[in-house]
Amino acid sequence: MADAKPAPSGRQTYATDFIKSDIDAAVFTGSAHIDNLMSVVIALGAEIWAGQQRTRIIESLLETKGKVTKKMVEDYVPTAAETAAWQAEREGMVKRVYAVLARDTSQAPPFAAERKF
After folding, report:
1. Distance (Å, whole) CA 23 – CA 41
2. How deeply is 35 buried, as exposed, middle or buried, from its count of CB atoms within 10 A (0-12, 13-18, 19+)?
């Protein structure tokens, strides 16, 4: 447990200093190269979804306001119906894009044993 020490406000706190993990050195799939590729694929999916959501906001603003500014996009609060629709769209995208990662490959030959072209 962390030792009690005064916070800048003068009150006691029991917070501890940040402890850096070695997550950058962790290997989850058995291959650091595959881990790197997975990280890229997941990051690209997140970027694509963010762009799609931003496009939906711009379309909505154009339909309702007839104009769009960066501030309007940043301040946009979706309706409950839009939130539900976006969640369904996002889940559909995840299934379409990432379903292949869940397929059963237990009977597939090892990569090195595959036929060379």
Report:
1. 18
2. middle
DSSP 12: E
- In order along its 117 residues, the chain shows pLDDT tens digits of 455 555 666 677 777 777 777 777 788 888 888 889 999 999 999 999 999 999 999 999 999 999 999 999 999 999 999 999 999 999 999 999 999 988 888 888 876 666 665
Two tokens at 10? 């003068």
Sign of the four-CA dihedral 106, 107, 113, 117: negative
Q: Are 57 and 76 in contact (CB under 8 A)?
A: yes
Helix ranges (H only) for the chain are 32-65, 70-75, 80-98
Q: Which two structure tokens, joined as six digits, stand for 14? A: 């029991």
Residue among 69, 39, 73 nearest 53 (CA): 73
d(CA 108, CA 106): 6
Cα–Cα distance, 107 to 13 (Å, whole number): 55
